[in-house]
Amino acid sequence: MNRVQAALSGAVMAAAALAGVATSQAPPPSPVAAVQVDLPRSREDAAALARARQDPLAARIRSVMAQDPRTAAMLQLAAESPVPVLGPSDPALLAAARLFTGDRHYMMSLERGGQVIEIYGSTKAFRSPVAQTPGAAGRTAAPTRLAVARAPARSAAAARRAQAAGLANLRTEQTEYGHDVAFSRFGAAYSVSLICDGQGAPGCGEADAVAFAASLVLIGGGA
Amino acid sequence: MRRPASLAALLLLTACSPTGCDGTTPGPEKGPPPAPGDAVGPSGPPAEPPPETPPEPEPVDWPHEPPGGLASGSGSGATDPTVWAAGMRFPMKAAPAYANSQVYGYGGFAAPGPGGQCDPRNYSYPWRDNFCETRSWTNGMCPAGRGHQGQDIRPASCEKKVHEVVAAENGRITSIGSYTVTLLGDSGRIYRYLHMDMAGVHALFPDAASRTVARGQTLGKVSADFGGSATTIHLHFEIKAPVDTGSGPTVMFVPTYPSLVDSYGRLLNGAA
After folding, report:
1. What is the three-state SS of A121-151?
2. Strands, DSSP E only, in A14-166?
3. What gap in Å lies between CA B127 and CA B133, rounded to an integer?
4. Please, what is the average pLDDT of chain A?
5. Which is it for the CA torsion A71, A73, A79, A80, positive or negative?
6. Which terminus of chain A is more exposed, N or C, with fewer CB under 10 A?
7. CB-nearest partner of B180 from A3, A37, A177
8. Does residue B237 contact residue B91 with C-beta atoms inside 8 Å?
9. Phi and psi of B74, rounded to 5°?
10. What domains, with CATH codes, occur in chain B?
């Protein structure tokens, strides 16, 4: 009889272990990994992209790039990118730029007067299944919404230019090394980072960053 | 009373005889299969008992505060536990390393008491989050909408140009500034490393061809370079990524601390 009881006890423990039932203090919840999602392109986004391809200034830039051996390869790389590649409209800046393409993202890095400018675009994004809106301390909000920073005051001229260029969801950030601007266009997410020698460096302010983002033209890609 | 069939099966599985629990007919003791060349048969030496399986080692842990647990008086942290860079390599080559505040640590501008940056209390656990620590810089992930945009990490000792910094994932170094190194990961995440020994970084990556890096590859060494300004010996590490906010995508700084905790745990347990 004792042997049967011991066997029954073992069976219960084995069943509990198989079922994952906690028999002692539960471990802390494990972190949750963000997942990648594709960013959809709406009909309006597609129309805006088609218009950008017809933009005379962008067409002229592409023509210049095609004729310059320093930029012809970059033009080809941009054309093959699934992300619409935005770049500066200044051929001199483009001539010294480097383009890095990847899985539904790209980055163009260039230098202007001692500062580094990085233009990033992506047609995918990361989503947290558990993110809470950090809008106020101790407040729990909708799980799928994240706080979007209040756009600080910026130069009215730069803002008007950005709006005219079709930049949506414009956000600016002062950083430890300059200023960043994030925006969406053609359904993709973009950012421009001005990386300077320090905060307060000339040409590294918020208005500079917004004006530069507004001046970008479509180099290629997005097919 | 009739017993359920499932219980009978469990009893069969657990009712072990002195000769084993596999339910087979009792027979000779079983040893490990013979290795090639081993002598087998009745004339051989008696079989040794099977070696005992060593117990699983306990996972190495270290004291660390939860996400959002900032130093007292340094603001409200991001309690989001999301690992925004799952699988990344911890950005320093070796442990120990100490994630904590520079401004609110000993020797910092808002230090808790007298002491210099090399105070042993700065070089000890527990880890503490300092993403969202009080700053004037915009940060959409912070409760206040502003705050520190990365995590500060002290190396094992208070020495410049000793402790190696490594790539968080495979990718390309897209720029080297006066005190910044930008790594575009193949995942599309952007990692920025600040305050390294920049002369050493330039020496390691003298040209464009050298700037494709593998996860874990040395990028340079921790120092205190800050474009002529003063700072402590530490690595500022930040992650920027396109984020689906639920109301449109945006490229933003994401909380760094949970990814660092995840990657440091793997480093300590030999699975960096």
Report:
1. EECEEEECCCCCCCCCCCCCCCCCCCCCCCC
2. 35-38, 85-87, 98-102, 105-112, 115-122, 124-127
3. 14
4. 80
5. negative
6. N
7. A177
8. yes
9. -105, 15
10. 98-268 (2.70.70.10)
ipTM: 0.79
Strand order across the A178-185 sheet: A98-102, A105-112, A115-122, A188-195, A178-185, A168-174
The domain limits of chain A are: 32-130+154-220
Low-confidence ranges of chain B (pLDDT < 70): 1-47
Cβ of B82 within 8 Å of Cβ of A34? The answer is yes
Tell the burial category of A161 from Cβ atoms under 10 Å away from its Cβ (0-12, 13-18, 19+).
Answer: middle
Phi, psi of B90 (to 5 degrees): -55, 135
A175 confidence band (pLDDT: 50, 70, 90): very high
When pLDDT is averaged across residues A40-47 and rounded to a whole number, the result is 96
- Residue B74: CB atoms within 10 A of its CB come to 22
Cis (ω within 30 of 0) for the bond into A202? Answer: no
Helices A2-19 & B5-14, crossing angle to 10 degrees?
100
B143/A128 CB distance under 8 A: no
A148–B15: do the CB atoms touch at under 8 Å?
no
Instruction: Out of A7, A150, A174, name the one closest to residue B14 (CB).
Output: A7
Cα→Cα distances B17→B13, B14, B22, B27, Å: 11, 9, 9, 12
Give the tokens for residue B38.
């081993």
For residue B149, give the nearest of B157, B164, B139 by alpha carbon.
Answer: B139
Interface touch B80/A137, C-beta < 8 Å? no
If one counts every other C-beta atom within 10 angstroms of the C-beta of residue A47, the result is 11
- The span from the CA of A183 to the CA of A122, in Å, is 11
Q: Of A52, A19, A97, A8, which Cα lies nearest the Cα of B6?
A: A8
- Hey, what amino acid is at A69? P
Residue A26: Cβ-neighbour burial (10 angstroms; 0-12, 13-18, 19+): exposed
- Phi, psi at A102, each rounded to 5°: -160, -165
* Secondary structure class of B166 (helix, strand, coil): strand
Chain A partners within 8 Å of B249 (Cβ): 39, 122, 125, 169, 184, 188-189
Q: How many residues belong to chain A? A: 223
